[in-house]
Amino acid sequence: MNDLLRRYGPVLSILFAALTAFWLLALVVLPDLYLFENSFRPYLPISEVGGPKDFYSFDNYLTFFHSPIHIQVFVWTIVYSTVVTVLCFVIAYPLAYYLSKVARSNLLPTLFLLILVPLWVSEVLRSFAWFIILALKGPLNILLLGIGVIDQPIRWLTGFRGVIIGLVYTYVLFMLFPLYNAIQSLDTNQIEAAEDLGSPWWRTHWRVILPHAKPGIASGSVMVFMLSAGSILVPTLLASTSSRWFTEIIQQWMFESQDWNTGSAYAFMLLLLCTIFVSVVMRLFRVKLSDIAK
Amino acid sequence: MSAGVDLDNVCADFGSFRAVDRVTVHIKPGEFFSFLGPSGCGKTTILRMVSGFIRPSEGKITIGGQDMRDIRPNQRPTALIFQNLALFPLMPVWENIAFGLEVRGVDRKARRDRAEELLRLVDLPGAADKTIGQLSGGQKQRVAIARALAVEPKVMLLDEPLSALDLKLRQHMRAELRAIQKRTNVTFIYITHDQGEALAMSDRVGVMSQGRLQQVSAPQDIYNQPVNGFVASFVGENNIFAGKIGNISSNMAQFETSVGTFKATIGPDAGTAHNPKLYVRPEHARLVAKPVNGENAIAVEIADVAFEGNFISIQARDAHGGILVAEARNDGQGSVPSPGEKLHMVFDAERAVILADETPAANATP
Ligand SMILES: Nc1ncnc2c1ncn2[C@@H]1O[C@H](COP(=O)(O)OP(=O)(O)OP(=O)(O)O)[C@@H](O)[C@H]1O
Ligand SMILES: [Mg+2]
């Protein structure tokens, strides 16, 4: 703060601070507060807003608990977000290990560029690309048929498969970078020390590298899980008839039923329940919040 | 129990840079062997080749008679103590020590017992359940030793393990390491750039420079009979005179310098060397008022006298202003010269040696 003052003088400094405050307050906090307040009020025709029926209650939240289908969708969302998180870890861990400890350092810039380039394409385009790739008569099936791995085209976009593939693809980097940072910070001598003491590679990973990378795994997992559970684009584009994501229900409330009150209640429900779920899982794996913040 | 280590013409190349150049040495079972040399001379590289993390680009390494070529680090009968120790900070002390046993499938109870036993061996009882962060530098050192001993290595490799410790602790740990080595009778290969450490602890010392082994000898011989100028000046102090060899008679020669011609012993290969120099250790130089006839003597003026307690170090200037050093034991009665006094520095021909510079390194441009 003092640094800012010294560098830009009081007028500019105050302006910066004010702009930041405005952005935070007007564009982040206030809308959320507005939705939060609305989530406790009933959905009424305009004429009755502020009337006798307009009072605070938990009714919107209770709607969720009275609707077995919504609960089911929520459970599937959690389950498949977990699956996505685990898959992201399985893909990102070897890659992160390779990048941080195996790859020659002069190759790293190229490798990172290759990894980052897909990020420059918008999420919508990427999801559509997957939609095309995974189509029944799409390139993936043609390729697999061509090289003889399969003899029947696979229907990729059934159940949650398409959504899982799309989400993993979209969010795997959120797992990769924390893992990369975590493994990078491990002294290579420790890996060699384990090997020197006779440890086979898998035990070195299990006892030395993974424990060290735990904070990275935790923050990557929390990010991927929360982003997946809250994702709307990928589930909408790559869903099949049988896969519904909880965010789609929120969207239905808000845009099809025009009931922003219940929609908000569902959105906060999602946030709350996911937070509880994540805290429980973190407890189970003995990860502390302070580990993640490191 | 312990095994010998043989290096046969071992080389290590990093790209076009030769870090270790044709090193041949036979380390005996149960020996405490030190590699001594300045920073960057290839000591760590040698150790990493013996432990298996680097493949020699040429030559052969055998341990206990077995060729190590295709044997991975986790299969070798060696244990390496890293320059930075590389303890596992997320495991308590006893799990660190027992890690090698865990790998070998020893059950938990037996592992724990063995860890406690080793902790007693390294004089650290009761530390089993501490975390690594709770230990002092010297204690970490001992845990690293215990962890390496736990796998009952035939050869223990130590990479400057004491360099991070303060002087007092370092001296204490020297004795401790030596004692542990004698007790366990494991072959120790010890790396250091500290000559005091190497001379005090080792059975034999190999002095290295620029990837080449210069001399392998017992500590006294390294100090008393250095084979070349590098060893002489890296280990201990010297007065060095450039010049050229005159008349040679058996192992003695006349050596002509700018401050006079002296009779001196000829070192190995010095007779044919490009650029031989005369080396006289300060403790072999005396200051006298009048030299005996025919004695090696240089007329000097005393420049500075430093009283060091058990000895006195005297700096003197020769006719060309070059600084020479003489050291005398303080026996409590000898008179101490004072600055400005004009004296003669004398030394015995047997204690003055003519040496070639070091054997040229592979990387040196001819
Ligand atoms: N991986 C590597 N790639 C390229 N050069 C290397 C590599 N490892 C070591 N070297 C070079 O080889 C030479 C010897 O290195 P080494 O680590 O063996 O020295 P050292 O004798 O252990 O020095 P110190 O006392 O400083 O630890 C050095 O000049 C170093 O720059
Ligand atoms: Mg080194």
Q: What amount of the residues of chain A lies in strands?
A: under 5%
Q: Total domains of chain A, how many?
A: 1
Q: Largest sheet of chain B, order of strands side by side? A: 6-7-8-3-9-10
Portion in beta strands of chain B: 25-35%
Helix-strand category of chain B: alpha+beta
CATH architecture heading of chain A: Orthogonal Bundle
What would the average pLDDT of chain B be, to the nearest integer?
A: 90
Q: What is the subunit organization of this protein? A: heterodimer
Helix content of chain A: over 70%
Largest sheet of chain A: none
**Rg of chain B (CA only):** 25 Å
Shape of chain B: elongated
Subcellular location (chain A): Cell membrane
Family (chain A): Belongs to the binding-protein-dependent transport system permease family. CysTW subfamily.
Pfam families (chain A): BPD_transp_1
Keywords (chain A): Cell membrane, Membrane, Transmembrane, Transmembrane helix, Transport
Q: How would you describe what is shown here?
A:
- Chain A: It holds the Pfam family BPD_transp_1.
- The complex is a heterodimer of chains A (294) and B (366).
- Chain A has helices spanning 2-38, 59-65, 68-102, 108-116, 123-133, 139-146, 161-184, 188-196, 201-229, 233-238, 246-256, 260-284, 289-293.
- Chain A is mostly helical and 294 residues long.
- In chain A, helix 2 crosses helix 12 (260-284) and helix 5 (123-133) packs across helix 7 (161-184).
- The mean pLDDT of chain A is 87.
- By secondary structure, chain B is α+β, with helices and mostly antiparallel strands.
- Helices cover 23% and strands 35% of the residues of chain B.
- Chain B has eight helices and 21 strands.
- Chain B has helices at 43-51, 93-103, 108-121, 137-150, 167-184, 195-201, 219-224, 229-234, and strands at residues 5-14, 17-27, 32-36, 58-63, 66-67, 78-81, 155-159, 187-192, 204-209, 212-217, 239-242, 244-249, 252-257, 260-266, 277-280, 286-288, 296-307, 311-317, 323-329, 342-347, 352-355.
- Chain B starts with a strand and ends in an 11-residue tail after the last strand.
- Classes of the chains: A mainly alpha (294), B alpha+beta (366).
- Chains A and B meet through helix 8 and helix 9 of A and strand 6 and helix 2 of B.
- Adenosine-5'-triphosphate (ATP) binds next to strand 2 and helix 1 of chain B.
- Magnesium ion (MG) is lined by residues 43-44, 83, 159 of chain B.
